[in-house]
């Protein structure tokens, strides 16, 4: 066998690569032992090096063995792709983590479209890889030299950020994670002063309603023009994505937008954030169902049209405190420091109404609708135990069980809130809760 290897270089390399691909550790070690330079040779003319092969096939042990032989961790193939990029492309998270531990550079660009491993993760939708890359970007010199948010919004040769790619490829999980980590929803592919495509154009092209929904809820602009002068709505129509088009039609009222620039929102703890995000999703889905019905489309099976009844009956059963703003939903959010409580939807409405325009967003932080005090923090309200509820029930100062009040005639609990007026009106509506503050 040794002789065979020594006289036929090409054959030898193929043997090596197929042994690497198949994870035959002993075979590879034997080849390396007989020919200590075989790894260097195999990587010198690298259209594909052993490390690339191990990475893209998810051969972790093989990868570690090769790295122990001091193979260059950032070796590139003919497209200037690193082993890290290939591991990410194939979703081999374990290999990817080993490569990063071994010092692989996350800021390398391929020669095909000048894409980084972050672009690959977003394009192929491998959330585990995306998370690992971003946490590396947070903790390494990339953050110092480049800045984390610049890395998240890194552009390829076409000006596309990872968010653009996730939107076009319908990678909803990656899209959500990128938005959460500061990907710019308004990033365009155009240079300064030129029209460019936004992630919303890409989502309209890709046809994922969920991606469109998430981008809109993050404040994406429905009126931005792409290089052909089209708004996202026209793109959705062109590719016959009717449901996306219904959401993107600028003649309809826009969605509730997550008020990310507000300080109290950006400093939410995970639990509160999850609760509010869910409320946002539900509010927007109600609006969405109305739109889809008007556009003569069946509502998405993911979200039934009449959620309200469920929620109402749920709160009826479970004797929990009703929100004193809408009298429909259960109080789940507590305002700090004053301690007033309201439902997630009302909290969100309160914060979202402060932000009709991103440019003026920083101007006004919302105040508590009950006491007009500053909101320093929003937390999840403690759910009352049954004994607490009993006490509350017997208390004469708690006149709040008047559920299904005048607000209930609207089919949507959110409709009652859609005008700022309702909050003003409610602020005057004194309740048992407010009474305790006096
Ligand atoms: Zn409410
Ligand atoms: Zn208050």
TrEMBL record:
- Ranges for domain RING-type come to 323-372
Name where it mostly resides.
membrane
List its EC numbers.
Answer: 2.3.2.27
Q: Which UniProt keywords apply?
A: ANK repeat, Metal-binding, Repeat, Transferase, Ubl conjugation pathway, Zinc, Zinc-finger
**What InterPro entries does this protein's entry cite?**
Ankyrin_rpt, Ankyrin_rpt-contain_sf, RING_XB3-like, Znf_RING, Znf_RING/FYVE/PHD
Asked whether the UniProt record includes Zinc-finger among its keywords, one would answer yes
For the region Disordered, give the residue spans: 386-438
Q: Where in the cell is it found?
A: Cell membrane
- Describe the reaction catalysed, as an equation: S-ubiquitinyl-[E2 ubiquitin-conjugating enzyme]-L-cysteine + [acceptor protein]-L-lysine = [E2 ubiquitin-conjugating enzyme]-L-cysteine + N(6)-ubiquitinyl-[acceptor protein]-L-lysine
Q: Name one GO molecular function term.
A: ubiquitin protein ligase activity
Task: Give me the stretches of Low complexity compositional bias.
Answer: 405-418
Q: Which PANTHER family match?
A: ANK_REP_REGION DOMAIN-CONTAINING PROTEIN-RELATED, PALMITOYLTRANSFERASE HIP14
Q: What is this protein called?
A: RING-type E3 ubiquitin transferase
The organism named in the record is: Lupinus angustifolius
């Amino acid at each position: 066998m040794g002789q065979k290897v020594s006289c036929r270089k090409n054959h030898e390399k193929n043997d090596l690569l197929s042994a690497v691909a198949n994870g035959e550790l002993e075979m590879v070690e034997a080849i390396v032992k007989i020919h200590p330079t075989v790894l260097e040779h195999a990587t010198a003319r690298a259209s594909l090096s052993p490390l690339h092969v191990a990475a893209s096939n998810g051969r972790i042990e093989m990868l570690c063995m090769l790295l122990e032989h001091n193979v260059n961790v950032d070796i590139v193939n003919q497209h200037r792709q690193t082993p890290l990029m290939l591991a990410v492309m194939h979703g081999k998270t374990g290999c990817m983590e080993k490569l990063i531990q071994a010092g692989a550079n996350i800021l390398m660009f391929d020669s095909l479209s000048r894409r980084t491993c972050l672009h690959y993760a977003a394009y192929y939708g491998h959330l585990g890889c995306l998370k690992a890359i971003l946490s590396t970007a947070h903790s390494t010199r990339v953050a110092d030299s480049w800045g984390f948010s610049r890395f998240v919004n890194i552009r390829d040769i076409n000006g596309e950020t990872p968010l653009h790619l996730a939107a076009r490829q319908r990678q909803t999980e990656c899209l959500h994670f990128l938005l959460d980590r500061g990907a710019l929803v308004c990033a365009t592919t155009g240079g300064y002063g030129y029209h460019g495509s936004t992630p919303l154009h890409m989502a309209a092209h890709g046809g994922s309603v969920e991606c469109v929904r998430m981008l809109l809820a993050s404040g994406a602009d429905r009126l931005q023009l792409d290089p052909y002068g089209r708004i996202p709505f026209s793109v959705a129509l062109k590719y016959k994505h009717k449901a996306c088009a219904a959401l993107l039609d600028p003649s309809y009222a826009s969605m509730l937008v997550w008020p990310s620039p507000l300080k109290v929102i950006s400093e939410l703890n995970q639990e509160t954030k999850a609760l509010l995000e869910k409320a946002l999703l539900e509010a927007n889905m109600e609006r969405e169902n109305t739109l889809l019905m008007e556009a003569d489309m069946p509502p998405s099976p993911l979200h039934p049209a009449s959620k309200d009844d469920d929620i109402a009956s749920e709160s009826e059963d479970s004797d929990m405190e009703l929100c004193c703003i809408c009298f429909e939903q259960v109080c789940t959010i507590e305002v700090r420091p004053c301690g007033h409580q309201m439902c997630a939807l009302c909290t969100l409405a309160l914060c979202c109404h402060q932000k009709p325009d991103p440019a003026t967003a920083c101007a006004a932080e919302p105040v508590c609708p009950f006491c007009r005090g500053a909101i320093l923090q929003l937390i999840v309200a403690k759910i009352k135990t049954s004994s607490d509820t009993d006490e509350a029930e017997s208390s004469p100062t708690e006149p709040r069980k008047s559920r299904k009040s005048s607000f209930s005639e609207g089919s949507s609990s959110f409709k009652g809130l859609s005008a700022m007026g309702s909050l003003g009106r409610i602020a005057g509506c004194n309740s048992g809760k407010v009474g305790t503050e006096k």
